[in-house]
Amino acid sequence: MTKNVYDPSLRKAASTMNLGQPSLGKGEQPASRPHEELPATAGELRKQGTKVDTARILPIRQQPNGGHQSGWEQPREVSFGQPSTYGKDLVDTSAFEPSTRCITFDHPTVHDTAIPAANTLHPLRPFDSSTYLNPAFPPLNYLPGFSTTLPSRQPDYLPPRLDPLDGVQPSSASTDFKPFGTRVDRGDYARIFPHYAPPRIGWAPPQVPPKPPKIKMEPAKVQAEPVKIESERKPIDYAKPFCEFLTNNPTVFHAVDTIAKNLEKHGYSKLSERDAWDLKKGGKYYLERNGSSLIAFAIGDKYEPGNGAAMLAGHIDALTAKLKPIPKLDTKAGYVQLGVAPYAGALNSTWWDRDLGIGGRVLVKESSGKIVTKLVKLDWPIARIPTLAPHFGAAANGPFNPETQMVPIIGLDNSDISGYGNAAIDAASKPSLLGGAGAFASTQPERLVKAIAGELGISDHGSIVNWELELFDTQPATLGGLGKEFIFAGRIDDKLCSWAAIQALLNSTSTSTSTSTSSSSIIKLVALFDDEEIGSGLRQGARGNLLPSTISRIIDAFTPCTPTLTSRTFANSFLLSADVTHAVNPNFLPAYLPQHSPRLNTGLVVAADSNGHMTTDAVSTAVLQRCADRAGQRLQVFQIRNDSRSGGTVGPMLSAATGVRAVDAGIPQLSMHSIRATTGSEDPGLGVKMFEGFLDNYEEVDGEFRK
Ligand SMILES: [Zn+2]
């Protein structure tokens, strides 16, 4: 049975509204779309006796003269299945003209807010998803795997729209027929969607910070040192050192190396995983793995095996584009180009038209036969991924192929038309004999080899054994805003929490503070992992054994380590998994939950997720809140909307692997995963203060949870 409650007056209201689609000019052809099948007509569907379970049928009309760049008009209305009659044929195609072409979906819905499988929606891609208004059928760019078909680089191309997520309460009312796919203003909205709450105009700012309730403070049972009040440095004092760190350390190898040197300057001794460890109570140590992950720890004077550790863990890798093993490419139209591959979500739209340098690590065979790693950084702009001007029409609109359309240009070689070879313009693609036949250098662009060798002072190109190079934005990190409230920088995710965590450890274990190792019976530890952005699955990632192995070896340095001792240690420990989180963006307030919209320059953000993408729970939040209270720091909280999906970080995998209580909390930033992002100028310092407060106070706070 079809429950057709379609109201013709609504249809009229919808059809009189301005579709407002960008039109093709005279003589312009709609972009060809080879894989698209012609949708069936309503008449054909009727003849076939189509019985589609809880079907959604979108009647559409072809626009012979364009009208929409795809050549198809957007759907005017849609029928929705009714959950209570799931399994029944709900579609009354007699409502449509027999010639009306329809797109059908035969994926059963389980609820009126269910979303058809993404591949089913493929034929819909050409439609301007920004005009989808029905909350039961979210715009395509809110669906996994979809983005709006209009180029994000041309925001003025998008028609103004009412955000479909603004103020809409999906309800069973969406089982009715609804006008669909037309632009409406706020006044029209109420008329067309009488069942729904009208969108709110304006936005009540959330209380900042939304603070977890205070726990009643009782005197700690553990003999506590006096709580350390603020040290002399203010949060803003950390802004410039952090900017310098970001600018000077564009690759993960540079960042780890600089942190290692800084640790050594502050009395931390380097350990090698290859050697036996001779550790002492009161000692400070660090180790690296792969040159791209690092653990630093300080052992309390009163440490006994089985005691816990206050652990901060973050990831120090960032989105980047890595040179392919053989990045030489044929010169095209006079351009020398470089073969690169994205690491995680790099080569996204923010990578266009950026000044990109090249850096990384180079393995060099010294004359003694020893192979050493050298870090290199060519920090003048070498590479650039040029956009196609919008004047080229559809070709400039994307989506773009990251293999063929985002290939960086690194030089010019017009020798093919100039008729003579130019020694100075040396084609990257020509066979190279640098370093001799069979040498690694001979597989690489010749001018790049010379530049790297020159930078490292290497005269024998054959001594380059291999390298791992990547592109990075050369624009320095800088303070911004009218009052320099911001930091604008690349690679904030997540050199930010990593840097702040190390700074906090140095402060907490500095001999000039009252809470150095001399009064501690625990381990204070910071672990910075590589490969978080690609799933942490490698040996230097958080899923590797670096952290558990380090803890076992610390215990083993004092007494033979047993599984029991390791388990006891983790049970007495706590992990603050520190990764950047999303600051509220004033232009997209409806994408945030009002009570979970962290602000910049306010404080560390506890990240929660009901589906376990974050490790945060009530106990771990309470432990952190107690540390924050004692350190005089503020916490904020973030959780993503139910109709979005939370990202993840190292917290859940580390707590699962070790059994340690853990909270995910990070410093807020805007534009995560953009090549250039924003945080507050006080945020690095606020991170340092909170992390330091955790390292200093965990031991006493943990006592409150042991009773
Ligand atoms: Zn991150």
From TrEMBL:
CDD domains: M18_DAP. Residues 1-86 are annotated as: Disordered. InterPro entries: Peptidase_M18, Peptidase_M18_dom2. One of its GO terms (molecular function) is metalloaminopeptidase activity. One of its GO terms (cellular component) is fungal-type vacuole. Keywords: Aminopeptidase, Hydrolase, Metal-binding, Metalloprotease, Protease, Zinc. GO terms for biological process: proteolysis. It holds the Pfam family Peptidase_M18. Its cofactor is Zn(2+). It comes from the Eukaryota. Belongs to the peptidase M18 family. This is Aspartyl aminopeptidase.
